[in-house]
From TrEMBL:
Species of provenance: Alkalihalophilus lindianensis
NCBIfam families referenced in this protein's UniProt entry, alphabetically: ptsS_2
Disordered as annotated region, ranges: 26-50
The keyword Iron is assigned to this record: no
Range of residues in the leader sequence: 1-21
Protein name (Swiss-Prot/TrEMBL): Phosphate-binding protein
Keywords associated with the record: Cell membrane, Lipoprotein, Membrane, Palmitate, Phosphate transport, Signal, Transport
Location(s), subcellular: Cell membrane
Transmembrane segments: none
Length: 332
């Protein structure tokens, strides 16, 4: 009887062991399948790695924003792609963009002109416009200038307009110093100059003796060294140099408005001096070079993240969605 019971226990144990062994076969097969899937995913990811270069030139105003976006793209997305960002100015940049085998993108602080579009068509270049942010044209003065902290829109225009009849601060208001004003700004290579000339001055002649410079950093230094200087450029160059210069609060008719990310936003109180800034894509380059199209996608989907830190107000979400649809069309 004892022998029978022992044999019965041993038989039961053998059944249990067999069952466990049979169960272990299925998980092992699943693990192998999972490993094969993981390898496939890695291969897919590897195939999406890009290389080559992306060449961006143009606006000095947009440069701080685009250079940050480019750096983040190379770190986050495609370390083997080199994105080269230069700042020859909007107009000079279009000169490099609208030629065969030109740059891939041109940043611009104004819209492309009709004659530039005609040049693109003549050279067989298809151009796609993307807004990247909103910028506020900011007037800056010396930190110790305590009389011109608040000016009306008309007073500011009179300083730079040849017909304004203003050469001294006292010409604006009698209580201001009887000192010659030193007006300054970016030169003709910059879209900021053209925006100011066309939109703010309404194509009126600039006052004689206005000091026009290629580099915005030069303007910052000149204003910081001259108590009678006044210059204009994008908000980003002001907000990154508040230790050297101060901004003029502008009265557009309802009291002084300080330029800020809130006021230069869409429909903000600083709207009369607010403008969109752009990048223009060479569509043919985007179709020929996958890294160009990939970078365009990164710009569209991430530019709002970096707008504020570089002195720009972000775009509304609906515009981002529209641009993604445009890029989807290019990849078909």
């Amino acid at each position: 009887m004892k022998k029978f019971l022992m044999l019965l226990v041993m038989a039961v144990l053998m059944v249990i062991v067999a069952a466990c062994g049979g169960g272990s076969d299925e998980p092992a097969q699943t693990d192998n399948t999972g490993s094969e899937d993981a390898t496939g995913d890695n291969a897919a990811e590897a195939s999406e790695e890009l290389d080559g270069s992306v060449v961006v030139d143009g606006s000095g105003t947009v440069y701080p924003l685009m250079s940050v976006v480019a750096e983040e793209y190379m770190i986050r997305e495609q370390p083997n792609v080199s994105v080269e960002v230069s700042r020859s100015g909007t107009s000079a940049g279009f000169g490099k963009f609208l030629v065969p085998n030109g740059t891939d993108f041109n940043d611009a602080s104004r819209e492309i002109k009709d004659e530039e579009l005609e040049e693109a068509e003549a050279n067989g270049i298809e151009v796609q416009e993307f807004k990247v942010a909103l910028d506020g044209l900011t007037f800056v003065i010396h930190p110790e200038n305590d009389w011109a902290k608040e000016l009306t829109e008309e007073e500011l225009i009179s300083i730079f307009n040849a017909d304004g009849g203003v050469t001294k601060w006292s010409d604006i208001r009698p209580e201001f110093p009887d000192e010659e004003i030193k007006p300054m700004g970016p030169n003709e290579n910059h879209g900021t100059y053209e925006f100011f000339y066309e939109e703010i001055l309404d194509k009126g002649d600039l006052v004689d003796g206005v000091n026009l410079q290629q580099e915005y950093s030069t303007l910052v230094n000149l204003v910081s060294e001259d108590k009678n200087a006044i210059a204009y450029f994008g908000f980003g160059y002001y907000v990154n140099n508040t230790d050297q210069i101060q901004a003029v609060n502008v009265d557009f008719g309802e009291g002084p408005v300080e330029p800020s990310l809130d006021t230069i936003a869409e429909d903000g109180d600083y709207a009369p001096f607010t403008r969109p800034v752009f990048t223009y894509l060479n569509v043919d380059m985007a179709k020929e070079k996958p890294q160009v199209l990939d970078f365009a996608r990164f710009v569209v989907n991430n530019v709002n993240e970096f707008a504020g830190e570089t002195g720009f107000a972000p775009l509304p979400d609906n515009e981002i969605e529209e641009y993604n649809s445009v890029l989807d069309g290019l990849s078909e």
